[in-house]
Amino acid sequence: MEYEERLLEYGRKTDEALRGCFSNKPAHCGLFEAMEYSLMAGGKRLRPALTLECCRVCGGEMEKAIPFACAVELIHTYSLIHDDLPAMDNDDFRRGKPTNHRVFGEAGAILAGDALQTAAFEVMLRPESGRGLPPERVIAAANTLAKAAGAEGMAGGQSMDVACEGRGLTITDVKQIHRLKTGAMIRASAEMGCIIGGGGEKELAALGRYAEKIGLAFQIRDDMLDVEGNVETLGKTAGSDRANEKITFVTLLGLEECRRQVDQCTLEAKDALRELPEAGFLCWLADKLAKRNK
Amino acid sequence: MEYEERLLEYGRKTDEALRGCFSNKPAHCGLFEAMEYSLMAGGKRLRPALTLECCRVCGGEMEKAIPFACAVELIHTYSLIHDDLPAMDNDDFRRGKPTNHRVFGEAGAILAGDALQTAAFEVMLRPESGRGLPPERVIAAANTLAKAAGAEGMAGGQSMDVACEGRGLTITDVKQIHRLKTGAMIRASAEMGCIIGGGGEKELAALGRYAEKIGLAFQIRDDMLDVEGNVETLGKTAGSDRANEKITFVTLLGLEECRRQVDQCTLEAKDALRELPEAGFLCWLADKLAKRNK
C-alpha cells in the first residue's frame, strides 16, 4: 500500500495548504464561509495529486508544487458550485451534502465560485509561492491553468453542455464536451506539475497524453457509475442522468463497450509513460481510477 | 484637448487589444458571443486608461501595459455581468442595452462572466504579454489584480453589499463596501501600471493613494447621478437606488455634502501626486471624473 499511502499524503498536504489559504480571514458577511464549505467538502483531491506527483516525476521538489495543486482544486471547486446552480444543472446534493446555493443562497454561491476562481490565481502568484522557482515557470504554470479553465477549456465545455441539452448528440460531441469540460483541467493538473518540476518538452507531452487518457476513462467510468452505483457510495443521486434523459457514454455505447473503452484508455495512458522513469505511481493511479466504485 | 485625445487614444488601444483577444475563436455554443457582447458594450475604459497612464508616468512604455489594461477591463466586465444577474441586482439594462442574462439566459451569463475572469489572467500570463518585461513584474502585476478582484476586494465588497441589503447602514459601512467593491479594482488598475512601468515604492504609494481617492469620488458621484441624472445620459434607469430603497452616499449625506466630499477627494487625489513629474493627465482626469454627468 505504498502508493495508496502516497495518494493520501498528497491529499493531506493539499488540505493543509487549502485550509491555510483561509485562516484568519475577515468575515465579509459569510463569503469565506461559503468558499470553505465547498472547498472542504471532502473532494478526492485527484487533480492536486496529479500536480504533485508530476512535479516529483520530473525531478522537482513536491513541496514547491503545492500552491499550484491548491489552485487546481480551487478552480475545480468553483466550477462545481456554479455547475450545481439552479440556472445550470440545478443539483441539490454534492458529495453527500446540500449544494452551496442550498446553504448560502444563489447570490452567495455565485460569489463564492467567483472568489474561488480568483483565489486560484492569487495563490499561484503570491510572492511566497514562487520562492526558489524560476519566475518563468510560475507564469507558464499559471497560464496553463488559465487556458484549461477558460472559454477554450472547462467553461467552453460547460457552455456546450448547457447549450446542447435536449439535442441529439453523437459520441464525437460527447467526447468533445468532456475533453473540454473535465479533460482540459485534468491535463493541466499534470502539465503544471511537470512545468514546476522542470520537465522538458518530452515529459510535458508524455504526461499530457497520460492525463488526457485517464481523464476520458474517468468520465466514461463516471457515466457507468451513474447507472451502476447507488446513492450511498456516490454521495449524489444515482440514475440522475437517466432521470434527466441525459445523453451519456452509457446511453450511446452501452455498459459493455464503456468498460472496454475505459480499459483501452487506461492502457494508452500507461503506455504514454513508458519512457519516463519513476512512473509507477501514475500507472497504479490509472488502474485505480479505472476500477473505482465511487 | 490634448488630454482628452490621450484618453480617447487609451480607449482605442484597449478596444483594439480586447477585440484581438476574441478574433478567430470557435463558437462554443455562443460563449464567446456572450463574452464579447458585454465586453464591447461601450464601457468608458477608465480603468485601462489608469493602467496605461500610470505605466507611462513611471517611465515605462505604455504599449507593454496593454495586456494588463485589458485584464482589468475583463475583470470589470465579468463583475458587471454577475452583479446584474436575477439572484443579485436583477438589472434589465446596462449601458443602454439589455443585460447579458436577458440576451443569453442566466446560465449563459454566469458562464460568460466566469470565462471573462479566466481570460483576464490568461491574457496577462501568455508568453507574448511578458516579452521585454522582467517576469517578476508580470507576476506582481497579475497578483495585484487577483488580490483586488477576490474575496478581500471586489467579490468581498459585492458579498457585503448583497448581504447587507435592507439593513441599516452607516456611512462607515457604505464607504467600506465601496472601498472593496469598486475602490480596490480602481486602485489595482493604477498599481499594475506602476509595476509594469518599473515604478518604485514611492510611486506605488502615491498612485495607489491617488486611485483610492478618485475611486471614492467616483462612487459618490455615481450615487449623485442616480438622483440627478436621467435615463438618456446614464444608459440605465435613473432613480433606481431610491426605487430599491438603497442606502447610498446621497441618502446618508445629502447632495450638498456629497458634492463637498467629491471635491475634497479630488483635491486629495491630486495632492497625492505632487512629487511625481508628468502627473498632468492624472490631475486632469481626477477633475473630469468629479464633474462628469454620466
- Helix-strand pattern of chain A: HHHHEEHHHHHHHHHH
Any low-confidence stretches of chain A, pLDDT <50, length ≥5?
none
Overall number of structural domains of chain A: 1
In the CATH hierarchy, what is the class of chain A? Mainly Alpha
| Secondary-structure class of chain A | mainly alpha
Number of helices of chain A: 14
Query: What is the CATH topology classification name of chain A?
Result: Farnesyl Diphosphate Synthase
Catalytic activity (chains A, B): isopentenyl diphosphate + (2E)-geranyl diphosphate = (2E,6E)-farnesyl diphosphate + diphosphate
Cofactor (chains A, B): Mg(2+)
Family (chains A, B): Belongs to the FPP/GGPP synthase family.
Protein name (chains A, B): Farnesyl diphosphate synthase
Describe the structure.
- The structure is a homodimer of 294-residue chains.
- The first copy, chain A, is mainly α and 294 residues long.
- The first copy, chain A, has helices at 2-21, 31-39, 46-57, 66-84, 100-125, 135-149, 154-163, 171-196, 201-228, 231-234, 240-243, 249-253, 255-272, 280-291, and strands spanning 93-94, 97-98.
- Chain A has a single domain (2-291), classed as Farnesyl Diphosphate Synthase (Orthogonal Bundle).
- Helices cover 71% and strands 1% of the residues of chain A.
- The model of chain A has no long low-confidence stretch (mean pLDDT 93).
